[in-house]
Amino acid sequence: MRGIILAGGTGSRLRPLTTITSKQLLPVYDKPLIYYPLSVLMLAGIRETMVICTPDHEQAFRALLGNGEHLGIELQYATQAAPRGLADALLIGREFIGDEQICLILGDNIFYGHDFGFTLRQEVEKLDGCTLFGYTVADPERYGVAVLNESHHLVALEEKPSAPRGNLAVTGLYLYDNEALDYATELRPSARGELEITDLNRRFLDAGRARLVDLGRGTAWLDTGTADSLLEAGQFVQVLQKRQGVQIACLEEVAYRMRFISGDDLGALAARIGGPASEQGRYLTRVLETS
Questions:
Q1: 284 and 252 in contact (C-beta within 8 Å)?
Q2: pLDDT digit string (tens) for the chain, length 291 residues
Q3: Which domains does the chain show, CATH number per domain?
Q4: What is the C-alpha separation between 94 and 88, in angstroms, rounded?
């Protein structure tokens, strides 16, 4: 399976913060936002990922993440000149994906929960068609909504409905079999001129090959598209890290625990980050000493 992080868009709701930088490069407490979706892909066991961003910001992403070698992964980059919809990411990444399965994640989504990585790896193993991830929200009219029947099977998908038939939002994390690439080429732009991810998901649903995993109350899903939600996400990360003494979306730690890199590699990264003089360096050293 190969991963795609869609980190394009103009970030218009966050201006002036995004006037000269990408939303996904803004800090969420102590890390750039893009660290969070990248850590999700790594926890899923994915080692080959494409970051799709705007042409203006590609060099900044390359400077931040490099080619991924230091994390035991491979990162490639592509650009999306204008917002053409989430499904456009599959068209941009088609050559990169090849004949592999796909995990698409939005660059402004944060997921956190006990055993979330284990759950995700399980879903990757049993993927057959399309797997979506749902999360209960208080304001479903703002999101794509999943409608389940009495047997808790997915029966319909509604895009920002004025009268939602449920409160289970479809999050920005999607698993697809390779035929999603062909489905994406057949999509036509919606009224707002974009290739809608909901239309792609409905193709799988109509074929009886779409399912939804309810993330439940033990998992947090945060969408950081506004100033308030960005601040709330930072506060969420701060509280958990201070209380538990562990870091969320520490890429070096994830790479080590997923065995993408060795203990010697982690030690070298800790030293490169700043060693004992750096809080991050001290944290990585503790990870190495206690694992």
A1: yes
A2: 999 999 987 777 878 877 888 899 999 999 999 999 999 999 999 999 999 999 999 999 999 999 999 999 999 999 998 888 889 999 999 999 999 999 999 999 999 998 899 999 999 999 999 999 999 998 888 888 999 888 888 999 988 887 788 889 999 999 999 999 999 999 888 878 788 899 999 999 999 999 999 998 889 999 888 898 999 999 999 999 999 999 999 999 999 999 999 999 999 999 988 777 788 989 999 999 988
A3: 2-135+170-260 (3.90.550.10), 262-291 (no CATH)
A4: 10
